[in-house]
Amino acid sequence: MSSKQGSLSITSENIFPVIKKWLYEDHDIFIRELISNGCDAISKLHKLDIMGEVSLPLDYKAKIQVTVNPEDKTLTFVDNGIGMTAEEVDKYINQIAFSGATDFLNKYKDKTSEDQIIGHFGLGFYSAFMVADTVEIDSLSCQEGATAVHWVCDGGTQYQMDEGDYDQVGTKITLHLNEDCLEFSNEYKVREVIEKYCSFMPTEIYLNKANAPEEYETIDASDLRETDQVVEEIHEDARYEEKEKEDGSKETVEVSPAKDQRKIVKRPVPLNDINPLWAKTPSDCTDDEYRDFYRKVFMDYKEPLFWIHLNMDYPFNLKGILYFPRINSEYESIEGTIKLYNNQVFVADNIKEVIPEYLMLLKGVIDCPDLPLNVSRSALQNDGFVRKISDYISKKVADKLSGLCKTDRENYEKYWEDIAPFIKYGCLKDNKFCDRMNDYILFKDIEGKFRTLPDLLVKPKESEAETSASSDSAEDTSSESKSQDGQDTKGDSSDGSNDSDRSDDSDKRPEAKAETEENAPKEPEKKTVYYVTDEQQQSQYINMFKDQGMDAVVLNTTIDSSFITQLEQRNEHYQFRRIDSGLTDSMTEDVSDEDLKEANEALTALFRKALGNDKLSVSVAKFKDDSVSSLLTQEEERRRMQDMMKMYGMAGMDPSMFPSNETLVLNVGNELVDYLFKHPDADRAEDFCHQLYDLAVLANHPLSPEEMTAFIARSNRIMLALAK
Ligand SMILES: Nc1ncnc2c1ncn2[C@@H]1O[C@H](COP(=O)(O)OP(=O)(O)OP(=O)(O)O)[C@@H](O)[C@H]1O
């Protein structure tokens, strides 16, 4: 076959159904498209005026008038923009997918900037046929001596174009709605759609209903404008009354002043705000304006906590305001909305490609004219560029928060409880955000003070306690057990020592493990941040911490477990340990394992027998506080694993994969424990063992119903024995 070159052609019969049915997901969008065309026409006229190519009358006021007419089943859009000549209609309307915007920008490319023209693809006008059987165009071009043009098309591939009688510069588009779409002749429906898509378009948009009775309003005569249509002049004389004075004499006083008013035809009110707050320079905006804007756009009458005004010209154009809403109760679900605009035209809510997922919890508006939108203008096209926008937004939010922490710590602390869920979720979802926020995350400590990680890691009183705990662990592993985390602990069963062969077998004791691990590569020394998940339940541990001048932070929300795991993954030099994950050196007396060996073996055997559990993990230490008899410790990793399983309801998973990791730590310095050690055959020894175990459990987690019943019965038995 001989080679051939040519241009592809489209048959309008085939492309028309595609536009009508598939191009735009929502029918509503035709309103946005026709209003955008009106805005573009006005922008173009404005540019020609600036360039001196046309001269607009002094009283020219750009506007788009939308009129519903339920009787005639029509909807019209009138703009006083550039208008079209017959040739232009032929070129831009009769040729599908040929945009006049590109032509206009090419023609005036040295004299005008590209911004503000919305149209791009040359398809939007045809969206009118999604709802109309017949569409008419009446247009008069702004060119001198232009004649009006009338165009009509019934949705097929034929159109009729004639000279028209339209006598005002601009364009009128009339839609004869099809029977299925008569809702678009309803004023309220059209208002709703305009408010959704066009609330911030750059030209004033008015809506009225054809043949509706005139509405009036009464104003002070001094407020009268030239454009007002006065229906009636109202004069009211001042009113006086006679009043008695203190001395009994009478006087006449004015009770209402004279009024001079005008009854006028109700002034039309535009449906949109042509100067949205995000487009202003941040330094020109007041707090009240930010709050009003929030209320108006999000219909949320709770005040936002604070906001971030994004304003950038390079490397891309992006403006917007992000609000951090106030969370009233922990049960309230946090539902954010980020409205995305393109040149003040609404695109869609919560477009996940542009807005980092965690910021979807906020409320805000983003306007990015550079967005690579697809034809329907409801979705995006290009991922690489969009990713950069998303990164930028994330960076700005981190900058604002860290700035607030550095320069306005008092307010940052006040906001913390409300903003913490966003930040923690953000840290989980976005590593870069996590790294940027790392030093500006606040932790409330057991004294109720807020601390950042750098505060916690260098805090003098803790670092003292830490030094004693961790230096011992580094230099003297002979007398204390050493957990995997490099922190000296007693009773931390991180070595899996809750198995039956623990405690009574000194070879299996943790220090033996430390020895066997000697040759293993040493993990870098980590600082430990201790935390509490339930201040009431863990109060015994908290008291011991406080007594030793040690600090711990409160992490009591569901997200915290995953959050601290993420922080640990991103920071090699510290780790989080729950306050009951083991005993630190500073809480115990320096007694050698050799000295504790006998007590350890005897008490382990006694408690295992009494509790009927030969796998019970028992450890012995001499606490500095001899009033504490017993404690339960839980190995951190396994506890977190179990928490995760509970949280995510990992149904079907075998709980024995992560068996109980608790160790009962007995204080040989306590009188009762010492008594049991010395008198294992004492009367009621079994009850005492049970009781000591339950008391340790109670300070850690609730007893099961059966355990609670047994605990109460046993307590009564012990009291009765005492009473006798
Ligand atoms: N109200 C109007 N006033 C003047 N010209 C108009 C008007 N409506 C449409 N046009 C012309 O017709 C062209 C085609 O319009 P259409 O809405 O189909 O596409 P577009 O606005 O250029 O691009 P998009 O598909 O992205 O909206 C426009 O570019 C413009 O030149």
Question: Can you describe this structure?
Answer:
With about 725 residues, the chain is α+β, with helices and mostly antiparallel strands. The protein has 19 helices and 25 strands. It has 5 domains: about 200 residues, Heat Shock Protein 90, CATH 3.30.565.10; about 40 residues, no CATH class; about 160 residues, Ribosomal Protein S5, domain 2, CATH 3.30.230; about 55 residues, no CATH class; about 130 residues, Up-down Bundle (Four Helix Bundle (Hemerythrin (Met), subunit A)). About 35% of the residues lie in helices and about 20% in strands. The strands form 6 sheets. The protein has a 7-stranded mixed β-sheet with strand order 5-4-3-6-2-1-7, with helices on one face. A 5-stranded mixed β-sheet has the order 13-14-17-15-16, with helices on both faces. A 5-stranded mixed β-sheet has the order 19-18-21-20-22. A hairpin with a 2-residue loop joins strand 15 and strand 16. The protein binds adenosine-5'-triphosphate (ATP). The site of adenosine-5'-triphosphate has 21 residues, from helix 2, helix 3 and helix 4. GO terms for molecular function: ATP binding; ATP hydrolysis activity; ATP-dependent protein folding chaperone; kinase activity; unfolded protein binding. Keywords: ATP-binding, Chaperone, Kinase, Nucleotide-binding, Transferase. It holds the Pfam family HSP90.
